[in-house]
From TrEMBL:
<feature type="transmembrane region" description="Helical">
    <location>
        <begin position="6"/>
        <end position="28"/>
    </location>
</feature>
<feature type="transmembrane region" description="Helical">
    <location>
        <begin position="149"/>
        <end position="173"/>
    </location>
</feature>
<feature type="transmembrane region" description="Helical">
    <location>
        <begin position="185"/>
        <end position="206"/>
    </location>
</feature>
<keyword id="KW-0472">Membrane</keyword>
<dbReference type="Pfam" id="PF01810">
    <property type="entry name" value="LysE"/>
</dbReference>
<keyword id="KW-1133">Transmembrane helix</keyword>
<keyword id="KW-0812">Transmembrane</keyword>
<keyword id="KW-1003">Cell membrane</keyword>
<dbReference type="InterPro" id="IPR001123">
    <property type="entry name" value="LeuE-type"/>
</dbReference>
<feature type="transmembrane region" description="Helical">
    <location>
        <begin position="113"/>
        <end position="137"/>
    </location>
</feature>
<feature type="transmembrane region" description="Helical">
    <location>
        <begin position="40"/>
        <end position="67"/>
    </location>
</feature>
<protein>
    <submittedName>
        <fullName>LysE family transporter</fullName>
    </submittedName>
</protein>
<feature type="transmembrane region" description="Helical">
    <location>
        <begin position="73"/>
        <end position="92"/>
    </location>
</feature>
Length: 212
């Protein structure tokens, strides 16, 4: 049992989460609209999904990896369609109406958690990202015990969760300075950014897999 496995996992978890893709934009938008806790819990949903893919990568579940590879195109299309729909929903959100609804109806943190979990788990390329990280850090090998791997996976979750806590906390610092007008345009920017990022990422993947 080595404490190094935990630290390696934390570094990998943070490194895999830092790039602000569609989920990062969603966490920022929810923090601004609903508050710090909603943003952080939304990030935890992504952290849980990343942990599952880290388990698949770390324990070399070849059957699941093989299924992902064989159905990758359809999974990518499904995930992209959901994220684009999310971007359109955020783009068309009226902050004044949203605030009135929040006063009438309490925010469901469970819904925030599982929505980002479902969105992140729809991106199966994450398993190959973790394979690359594990190979680069040389933290997975035949000499590893089950405890070593569990510590590594626990570190990945802790690292990812730490990043989402930092991000939501930083965004929350500026939340009080955001009025309805600014929030209206932030929703437009956030929704547009999600759509552009998804289309760009999907186009690059298609060009690499099927064109070049």
């Amino acid at each position: 049992m080595s404490i190094e496995n935990i630290f390696d996992g934390i570094i990998i978890g943070i490194s895999a989460s830092i790039p602000l893709g569609p989920i990062g934009v969603l966490v920022v938008q929810r923090t601004l609209n609903k508050g710090h806790l909603s943003g952080f819990v939304s990030g935890l949903g992504a952290a849980l999904s990343d942990t599952i893919y880290a388990i698949i990568a770390g324990f070399s579940l070849s059957f699941i990896v093989g299924f992902i590879e064989s159905q990758l195109l359809w999974i990518q299309i499904f995930g992209a369609a959901i994220l684009i729909g999310l971007g359109l929903k955020i783009y068309n959100t009226n902050p004044a109406i949203q605030l009135r609804k929040q006063k009438k109806k309490s925010t469901s943190l469970i819904q925030d958690l599982f929505s980002t979990f479902a969105l992140t788990i729809a991106n199966p390329l994450a398993v190959f990202l973790f394979m690359a990280f594990f190979a680069g850090f040389r933290v997975v090998g035949s000499e590893n015990t089950a405890i070593d791997n569990l510590l590594l996976i626990g570190g990945v979750f802790a690292g990812a969760a730490t990043w989402w806590l930092i991000l939501s906390s930083l965004v929350n610092l500026f939340r009080s300075k955001i009025n309805l007008r600014r929030l209206f345009w932030l929703n437009k920017i956030a929704g547009s950014t999600i759509i552009v990022l998804v289309i760009l990422a999907f186009s690059i993947w298609i060009s690499k897999e099927y064109i070049f």
